[in-house]
Amino acid sequence: MIRENQNVFNICNVLLDILVLVISVFFLYHTSMIQHRYPISFYYTTLLSLFILLIPSYLFLYYEFKLYTPQRTNRSIFSESSKILQVNFFEYLFLSAMCYVEFLNVSADFLISFLVINSILAVIERSIIREFLRLLRSKGFNIKYVLVIGAGEVGRNLVETIKINTYLGYKVIGFLDDNVIGTVNDVKVIGKINTLESILDTHMIDRVIVSIAPRHYKTLESIMACCEKMGVRADIVPDYYRFITSHPTIELLDNIPLISVRYLPLDISINKYLKRTFDVLFVVVASIILSPLLVIVAIAIKLTSPGPIIYKQERVGENAKPFMIYKFRSMKSENEYIDDKKWTQKDDPRVTTIGKIIRKTSIDELPQFYNIFKGDMSLIGPRPERPYFVNKFRESVPKYMIKHHVKPGMTGWAQVNGYRGNTSIVKRIKYDIYYVENWSIMLDIRIFFKTLPALLNDKNAY
Fold it and tell me: Per the record's keyword annotation, is Transmembrane helix included, yes or no (predicted)?
């Protein structure tokens, strides 16, 4: 039934997106008319021009950003929200160009207001659709029927994953295997591999997933040929899947496909540009707003203990390149303060009276605005570590160096989840890797707002 229903779902999705556009425009127009900001003639000419431009351009961008691709994953709405925001950004550029050539006659504030309202409504709409489909699948509707070829370790793991994650909406009807008979993981082996064509002909199967080893090349070739002949989608679980992350990318070297085992969103130029632009704007504005506090802290440090106001220390940044990080000095300036092989401990005797306050509230980190402005750091990202610990952890902590694929940050996903300071490195790096592989504008915003309350109640800040 999924084959017939998928087209219906796609049409409904498109219609709902158009409805959101219409509601956004009329809501803003009605509000503007009440405030007497636009004349009545706006309704007949500009509104028509707006819809002529909006509907096809939005549907095109939604398609290009794969917002109409069926999503059977456990990703949060934040992943889809970031795509919606990117669509609205490009839509703003397009509509602004139409205004420039005088095809469209709306003010900049109307345009911005519309895009904000539409973004909010579109995220709400997609959230409702996502949860509705998950509910349907958990109740046994909107199901895709799957045949798994190969009842070995990879196939068994695949079936177990499908059974646990009911929201995916998959149901395994059976295995095909030449060496196994009976039942595996409560799923019956319904035949040998050479019976594939007859099985596809007599069963309702939406997807064939092949989980046999690549060394069985001839068998794999015949399986793919059979699936193509029968018009059934075929997928392969590679035997080396454990080395591939959840977002692999494929590029072509002439006609040879290369699988990149680790997808890095910040390798994409537009993402890197957007993040850098936000960093610079934030630092400039925040520095102006916080300048009185910066001056007060600097004076307090100078008056209460001898030594420099700013402390600098070597850290390891993006691409494992060293840089000097800046902080307000929070410790005594004697020789024991300079210790690149020791973390700060609770009730550390080296910390000054002022230092306890500024470390507890992370005010000592504010000079890193300069690091962000220089481009050594970002506002959000994995925290940078000292070279001694980097060399130590790269040998003892699996995948530790992956965090260095992006710029380090003043705060990060690990920190807002409680892994700051002298906490588990293994758990911390898992959060850092998640950030590196799943970066989005919405994730950065989420981390930023989770950081604010954490500043006042962080048990690991000392």
Answer: yes
- Please name the residues in contact with 290: beta carbons below 8 A apart, sequence gap of 6 or more: 366
Question: 428-433: which pairs have CB atoms within 8 A and are 24 or more residues apart?
Answer: 429/393, 429/397, 429/399, 429/400, 429/402, 429/403, 432/382, 432/402, 432/403, 433/399, 433/402, 433/403
* 74 pLDDT higher than 60: no
Neighbours of 82 (CB within 10 A): 21
What global pTM score does this model have? 0.58
Buried b (16+ CB within 10 A) or exposed e, 201-215: eeeebbbbbbbbeee
Domain limits, the chain: 5-139, 144-243, 269-457
Beta carbons of 148 and 199 less than 8 angstroms apart: no
SS3 track for 102-139: CCCCCCHHHHHHHHHHHHHHHHHHHHHHHHHHHHHHHC
Residue 269 one-letter amino acid: S
Whether residue 337 is predicted with pLDDT greater than 50 in this model: the reply is no
Closest CA to 440 of 278, 296, 231, 266: 266
- CA nearest neighbour of 235 among 261, 193, 206: 206
Roughly how many angstroms between the first and final C-alpha of the chain, as a whole number? 59
**Mean pLDDT, residues 226-248:** 77
Class of domain 144-243: alpha beta
How many whole angstroms separate alpha carbon 156 and alpha carbon 152?
6
Report the helix count and the strand count for the chain, using DSSP H and E. 15, 12
DSSP-derived letter for residue 250 is E
CA-CA distance, 324 to 455, in Å (whole number)? 24
Which residues contact residue 293 at a Cβ distance below 8 angstroms, ignoring those fewer than 6 apart?
363, 366
User: Given the structure tokens 């390891």, which residue do they identify?
Assistant: 316
CA distance linking residue 162 with residue 406, whole number of Å: 33
Place of tokens 């910040």: 266
> Would you place residue 2 in the very low, low, confident or very high pLDDT band (cuts 50, 70, 90)?
very low
SS3 90: helix
Rounded to whole angstroms, the Cα distance separating 32 from 42 reads: 11
Residues found in the chain: 462
What is the per-residue pLDDT across 252-291, written as a single tens digit (0 to 9) for each?
666 676 777 677 888 888 889 889 999 999 999 999 999 9
- With CA atoms as reference, report the closest residue to 455 among 347, 366, 369: 366
Write out the two tokens for 417.
Answer: 């989840």
- For residues 99 and 238, what is the distance between their CA atoms, to the nearest angstrom? 50
CB 175 within 8 A of CB 184: yes
Classified as helix, coil or strand, 311 is strand
Kindly report the backbone phi and psi dihedral angles of residue 226, in degrees, each rounded to the nearest multiple of 5, phi listed first: -65, -45
